[in-house]
Amino acid sequence: MTTIPTHGKVAVFSAGSWGTAFSMVLADAGNEVVLWARRPEVAEAINEQRENPDYLPGIELPPTVSATHDVEKALHGADVVVLATPSQSLRENLTTWAPHVEPGAVFVSLMKGVELGTLDRMSEVIGQVTGAGPDRIAVVSGPNLAKEIARREPAASVVACEDEDVARMLQRRCHTAAFRPYTSVDVLGCELGGAYKNVVALSVGMAVGLGFGDNTTASLITRGLAETARLAMKLGANPLTLMGLAGLGDLVATCSSPLSRNRTFGERLGQGMSTEEIYASTRQVAEGAKSCSSLLALAERTGVDAPIAEHVDAVVAGRMTAQQMMESFIARDTKAETD
Ligand SMILES: NC(=O)C1=CN([C@@H]2O[C@H](COP(=O)(O)OP(=O)(O)OC[C@H]3O[C@@H](n4cnc5c(N)ncnc54)[C@H](O)[C@@H]3O)[C@@H](O)[C@H]2O)C=CC1
Ligand SMILES: O=C(CO)COP(=O)(O)O
């Protein structure tokens, strides 16, 4: 069994919104945190100004968070390695980081996407690249908008690992006065819940951008949950995971919040901007804009109906407008709610 102590050094890759906010959680829980930044100037700013001016301006970082651009330095002595890059770049990045990871270290994925092409979940990518077994791979997922977590607003989340003892140890490593983690052994359910809610949030954003109200958004959220559960359960997830924090909880937070990058991306599509125009206007990742395609392919491969992923993918790819998407949803063949 993998054993990790209750406190220690954690390496976090990388210093975007969620990597930085989760570093604060880890530091508040008593860990020494080293945050790896892709750009040396971001590491320097964090160490000198005690804040991440690019991603979380105005938020003071705890003294036990330091930053570096040096991979070896970040990983030296770390028994937990937290991964928070955009999903589509994880494989390439981790391939260069893996040789420097301490033997036996546990990986924690904070990412909410599915790899294009392979259709692999992030835990699967981590296992393939590092050779770590399921007892060394965990995910943290829940209604955790980075800015609110960084402001230490109360929130709950799920720490999932197939080895429940490891999930419990990680739970202790990130439990603070404001952040309450629950354990789970359903890694697949948590990951699919996290990735799918981004696609649903894109559709909700489109509805908002088109000027529609709460009936439309509630309908999309509810049918989005049904679609997520249909795929996740067919692949072996526990249905209760989808009703929990990493499913319904995250779906509600992301679809309701103007802080969500995915909802905002959808809103802009609904207002008539093209995907290219939106990409040009922001540096922050909206995972659903890529994962709509991989989740649709996963649903097709699994033989599951996925109309929201299918329509969102069509709008993101420019094959359909947001207005046409809404009309098409309503015009689809009618059926029983539970089918
Ligand atoms: N922001 C949030 O509230 C939450 C985000 N997440 C998930 O966490 C993951 C990371 O998201 P954020 O930190 O929000 O994104 P972000 O856009 O704020 O930051 C992304 C980070 O990755 C780095 N990066 C970008 N492209 C890269 C590349 N090609 N190679 C290596 N590093 C690269 C950036 O420099 C930046 O440090 C995503 O999967 C997201 O869905 C999960 C929960 C909450
Ligand atoms: O995953 C999130 C909240 O749990 C953040 O959502 P966005 O990536 O859409 O901002």
> Which compounds are bound in this model?
1,4-dihydronicotinamide adenine dinucleotide, 1,3-dihydroxyacetonephosphate
How many distinct folded domains?
2
Largest sheet: 8 strands, mixed
Distance between the termini: 42 Å
CATH topology of the largest domain: Rossmann fold
Lateral arrangement of strands in the main beta sheet:
3-2-1-4-5-6-7-8
Derived structural class:
alpha/beta
Summed up, the helix count is: 16
List unreliable stretches of 5+ residues.
none
What number is the mean pLDDT?
A: 97
Give the SSE order as H and E letters: EHEHEHEHEHEHEHEHHHHHHHHH
Strand content: 5-15%
Basic shape: globular
Helix content: 40-55%
- Provide the CATH top-level class of the largest domain: Alpha Beta
The CATH architecture classification of the largest domain is 3-Layer(aba) Sandwich
Radius of gyration, in Å, reads 19 Å
Care to count the β-strands? Answer: 8
Determine the CATH superfamily of the largest domain.
Answer: NAD(P)-binding Rossmann-like Domain
Binding site for NADPH: 17-18, 38-39, 55, 112, 146, 261, 285, 287
Keywords: Cytoplasm, Lipid biosynthesis, Lipid metabolism, NAD, NADP, Nucleotide-binding, Oxidoreductase, Phospholipid biosynthesis, Phospholipid metabolism
EC number: 1.1.1.94
Domain Glycerol-3-phosphate dehydrogenase NAD-dependent C-terminal: 186-327
What would your notes on this structure say?
- There is one protein chain.
- Helix content is 51%, strand content 12%.
- It has 339 residues and is of the alpha/beta class.
- The protein has two domains: 9-185, 3-Layer(aba) Sandwich (Rossmann fold); 188-331, Orthogonal Bundle (N-(1-d-carboxylethyl)-l-norvaline Dehydrogenase, domain 2).
- It has an eight-stranded mixed sheet, with helices on both faces.
- Helix 7 links the parallel strand 7 (155-161) and strand 8.
- The mean pLDDT is 97.
- The structure holds 1,4-dihydronicotinamide adenine dinucleotide and 1,3-dihydroxyacetonephosphate (13P).
- 1,3-dihydroxyacetonephosphate binds next to helix 8, helix 11 and helix 12.
